[in-house]
Please model this.
Amino acid sequence: MSVRVEFLGPLKQVVGGEDIIELEAGTIAGVIEKLNEQYQGVTDRLLEPEGTLHRHINIYINEEDIRFKEQLQTALSPGDVVTVISAIAGG
Amino acid sequence: MVSPPKTDKQQDWHNRYARHIVLEGVGESGQKALNRASVLIVGTGGLGSPAAFYLTAAGVGTLGLVDDDDVSLNNLQRQLLHGTSDIGRPKVHSALETLNEINPEVNIHTYLEKVTPEIIWDLVSDYDLLVDASDNFATRFLINDVCVQAGNPLVFGAVLQFSGQVTTFTQEDDCGCYRCLFPEAPPPQYVPTCEQAGIFGVIPGIIGTLQAAEALKLILGRSGHEVGTILKNRLLLYDGKDSSFRTVKLSKNPGCPVCADPAFNFRRVNYHNTCALEGSPATPLGSQSTADPSVAAEAAKS
Ligand SMILES: [Zn+2]
Model:
């Protein structure tokens, strides 16, 4: 199931500055697992030690916040766009 | 019937705001609504500069500026309210001078004060809406929480490196707040400040200008003018690296400890730590706080 993953802003460095990553995954947890194989430390940057999403990280599937879906178990459909952002505070 | 000749003052008003007056959606009545409105901008740096410029030029009746910082040389790369000869002066003083020159008809109040919960609480009732142009998480959570409690609309904007975020919290029942978006401030090791990580100078210019647009549209919309939709329950993301805008949905969290709890009281929150709510149970998103308690106070002088 091919999806497009985009890390925005300062999080881009987590995936080596890549704008768009295409990969095969059935859930958000699967996306993170795949990314962690490719880029070291992805899991630590996105998840708490107990495996939940950091509170300052949001993940969207086609504009929908996964916190209001099935969290990391939210299922993906082919062609979905996954957007990952971090809270920022600069002004 | 011949209408009485306009006075010089009326002519100047028509002339100064001619492009608004002729504009469908604003017009004379919209311009008058702007002239009656009051906006408090917290921060007169990278975001506060463009926001204050445009709100002043647009003739917002009263503008409040809160900042306890002095102008420094490394501000001038992006904080356009201040000039080289202002270095060492309080930012609110140089801001006042600059803005008076743009539009002397705007009533500008400056508050050379550190942002504390009580100061923001005292000020919110004097203003129709707030623009968050601050530069650290502690202040952002504080402003959010006080605005929710007071019911004041809040235009949020934040920047880092090449990216920016904008949204408007209207405080209507169906509108989420900053805590619905991000429940708590991240531990400092996770999200750097502009001082640490840098900021591409035009990014706050873009985001602060969008905040001004949101504030003006909010004022116009609330006075019955047709200026389209604002960023209510939508987060606008700007990525300066790939020169793109995206919007994502911002949902009201029915379990939000701030905007969904009528008993919420900002006085019970420790804004010196991760802005966590006292005794708040760990949510499914739970994060243990590893933040140094001194951090929030020191946070992010960008
Ligand atoms: Zn909320």
Summary: The pocket of zinc ion is lined by residues B 176-177, 179-180, 253, 256, 258-259 (CB under 6 Å). The radius of gyration of chain B is 20 Å. The beta strands of chain B are 38-42, 62-66, 107-111, 129-132, 154-160, 163-169, 234-239, 244-249. Chain B touches chain A through 54 residues (CB under 8 Å).
